[in-house]
């Protein structure tokens, strides 16, 4: 029996997603034991700024590239040229701004120990944005292996660099430890971009080349609403990441205890809760090129079906996790608070 390309890609993405989640959780367990709960909490605060700065640009451009190329109405290489130029300009401006305003960001967060981490992180933004455009290309072509292999390579580089720097150069200073963690993230993002761009160029060498006056407008038409939605979501999450530890600090009268509790929730409990989404995210990313160009009735029918199946799976996962939360916390982290 012939297996459809959609099913094959779903299986491939699911396997890679689960593997990356397992690798990521293992890394976070080792990292939390190495840098402590307080530093983990500070890392999560800076990471929320990271997602605020990058999420809107990357998601908007990636989705725009995927949809426009899947519809096959515009010149492929013209779409990529405009998207990559936009990615470099927008993310470069944001990275420059975050570097210059790192002290202000530290004051907004309420912890100046994160300033160096923000500066280091700003260098990764253009590379991440270009990678997002290239991933959009492969998604539109329903080619899952190249970006999946790049993500695996990126995670391995991240873990290797972080563990090497923490083992050989870091001390007990939380600011230094946090900076080294984000240095590993930056090196991983740069390495990922260096790998995926040649893969994209090889893949697109047979595509037509030329300009189109509509490309910029079409990318903006799709990318701006999606990016704005993501930006709004990121702003709320960032506000939560800033307000929650500050409120806990007032409650416990200790910044260290507040960050430790915040780190327990964000870096330890949430990865367990979000683990089942590895499969669902694989399906959702493949639906975009699959539905591009379909009629409104077909899109509505398939999306309704996807939402129905997703809801059933989510309630099932929630019930299982509620029943075995304490056991999971002890098994994975040897920590009772994670289960609660």
Q: In percent, how much strand structure appears in the residues?
A: under 5%
Radius of gyration: 21 Å
Our count of helices gives 12
What is the helix/strand order?
A: HHHHHHHHHHHH
Global mean pLDDT: 84
Low-confidence stretches: none
What separation lies between the terminal Cα atoms?
A: 47 Å
Taking the sheet with the most strands, its summary is:
none
What attributes characterize this protein structure?
86% helix; 340 residues; 12 helices; mainly alpha
Folded structure, characterized:
By secondary structure, this protein is mainly alpha-helical. 86% of the residues lie in helices and 0% in strands. Helix 1 (5-71) crosses helix 2 (76-100), helix 1 (5-71) packs across helix 7 and helix 1 packs across helix 10. It is globular and about 60 Å long. The mean pLDDT is 84.
Strand and helix map with partners:
Elements: H1 5-71, H2 76-100, H3 102-109, H4 115-122, H5 125-140, H6 145-168, H7 174-203, H8 215-252, H9 255-273, H10 277-291, H11 296-333, H12 336-339
Summarize the structure.
The chain has 340 residues and is mostly helical.
């Amino acid at each position: 029996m012939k297996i459809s390309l959609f099913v094959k890609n779903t299986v491939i993405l699911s396997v890679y997603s689960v593997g990356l989640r397992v690798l990521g959780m293992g890394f976070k367990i080792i990292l939390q034991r190495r840098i402590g709960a307080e530093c983990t909490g500070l890392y999560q605060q800076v990471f929320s700024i990271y997602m605020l700065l990058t999420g809107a640009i990357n998601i908007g451009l990636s989705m725009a590239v995927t949809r426009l190329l899947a519809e096959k109405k515009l010149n492929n290489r013209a779409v990529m040229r405009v998207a990559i130029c936009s990615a470099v300009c927008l993310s470069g401006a944001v990275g420059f701004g975050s570097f210059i305003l790192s002290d202000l960001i530290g004051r907004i967060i309420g912890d100046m120990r994160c300033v160096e981490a923000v500066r280091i992180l700003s260098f990764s933004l253009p590379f991440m944005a270009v990678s997002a455009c290239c991933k959009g290309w492969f998604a539109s072509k329903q080619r899952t292996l190249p970006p999946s292999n790049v993500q695996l390579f990126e995670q391995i580089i991240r873990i290797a660099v972080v563990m090497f720097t923490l083992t050989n150069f870091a001390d007990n200073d939380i600011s230094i430890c946090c900076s080294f963690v984000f240095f590993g993230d930056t090196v991983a993002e740069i390495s990922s971009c260096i790998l995926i761009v040649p893969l994209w160029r090889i893949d697109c060498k047979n595509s037509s080349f030329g300009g189109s006056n509509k490309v910029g407008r079409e990318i903006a038409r799709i990318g701006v609403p999606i990016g704005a939605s993501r930006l709004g979501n990121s702003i709320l999450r960032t506000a939560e990441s800033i307000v929650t530890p500050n409120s806990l600090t007032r409650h416990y009268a200790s910044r260290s205890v507040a960050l430790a509790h915040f780190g327990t929730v964000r870096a330890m409990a949430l990865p367990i809760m979000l683990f089942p989404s590895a499969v669902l995210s694989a399906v959702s990313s493949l639906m975009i090129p699959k539905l591009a160009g379909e009629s409104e009735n077909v899109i509505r029918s398939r999306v309704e079906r996807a939402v129905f199946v997703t809801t059933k799976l989510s309630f099932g996962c929630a019930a299982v996790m509620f029943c075995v939360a304490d056991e999971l916390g002890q098994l994975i982290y040897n920590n009772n608070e994670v289960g609660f």
